[in-house]
Design goal:
The protein contains four helices and 14 strands. Helices cover 18% and strands 35% of the residues. The protein has two domains: 100 residues, Nucleoside Triphosphate Pyrophosphohydrolase (Alpha-Beta Complex), CATH 3.90.79.20; 125 residues, Nucleoside Triphosphate Pyrophosphohydrolase, CATH 3.90.79. Bound molecules: zinc ion. Zinc ion binds next to loops.
């Protein structure tokens, strides 16, 4: 059913209780429309406009840990709805989640312990005592697809869902170039060297606040040696025999899909 003109004029609300997003029950990924969270019977501790989705304005909000979901809705884990969402919905939901989490973790100044308040005109919390501005943190991470002939390197970390494999990823450390991060991660985690780095694309990833910067690379030496504790298993896979892959909404999936498509039947 298409929303009426009046409904369309009301913004969509991405309301979070902790990490969980308030969604309408049902098969599709939908969040409630309302002129304000109070219309849903919820008190927003914080709100911030986060963009638009299919022509509707979108707001992020935080509700208290005790808040109950209104009838016909539930607070759901974003990781549990990968199969329901498209990239656009996931993008707005992820941005909302990060802004709400930033606010929730910056109520006090990290330098002097003073209370913070919203800074006017920018996305920042200002310390009421020392004036320091605290911006949302975005953590750059690299994600790399390594090719060796007609095979692709896939690995799994101990924290992955059972059976799932993906391309390798790691956070950029202070003082490091992206190229250095890629070299270090592959050397440390699987013991190989790579060459021919090419930029592929990027994607914000809100678990908790990464910007995934994706590259493709070619194998250039070394024997696979998974790092104990970090990598449970790693192997070269040919397209007909791929294991379970990450969700389609992720850039990891797009990297692997691009390889399969180029490898041909
Ligand atoms: Zn301060």
């Amino acid at each position: 059913m298409q929303p009426s003109a009046r409904e369309r004029a009301e913004p969509l609300w991405f309301l979070f209780r902790g990490d969980r997003l308030l969604m309408l029950d049902g098969e599709a990924a939908r969040v409630p429309r309302a002129s304000a969270p109070e219309d849903l019977g919820l008190q927003a501790l914080f709100r911030w406009e986060v963009g638009a989705l299919n022509g509707s304005r979108c707001w992020a909000g935080e509700v208290s840990p005790e808040a109950e979901a209104p009838e016909g809705m539930a607070f759901r884990d974003l990781r549990g709805i990968f199969a329901l969402v498209d990239e656009e919905f996931f993008g707005v939901a992820g941005r909302a989640k990060q802004i709400v989490a930033w606010h929730a973790t910056h109520r006090y100044c990290g330098r002097c312990g003073g209370r913070t308040e919203r800074a006017a005109g920018e996305m920042a919390m200002r310390c009421t005592r020392c004036g320091m501005l605290h911006y949302p943190r975005v953590s750059p991470a690299v994600i790399v697809r390594v090719r060796r002939g007609d095979r692709v390197l896939l690995a799994r970390s101990p924290g992955f869902p059972p059976g799932l494999y993906s391309v390798l990823a790691g956070f950029v450390e202070p003082g490091e170039s992206i190229e250095e991060t890629i070299g270090r991660e592959l050397r440390e985690e699987v013991g190989i060297e790579v060459a021919n780095l090419r930029y592929f694309g990027s994607q914000p990833w809100p678990f908790p606040n990464s910007l995934m910067i994706a590259f493709t690379a070619d194998y250039a030496g070394g024997e696979l040696a998974p790092e104990p504790g970090e990598i449970e298993a790693a192997a070269w896979y040919a397209p007909p025999d791929l294991p379970q892959l990450p969700p389609r909404v992720s850039i990891a999936w797009r990297l692997i899909d691009d390889f399969v498509w180029k490898a041909g039947p």
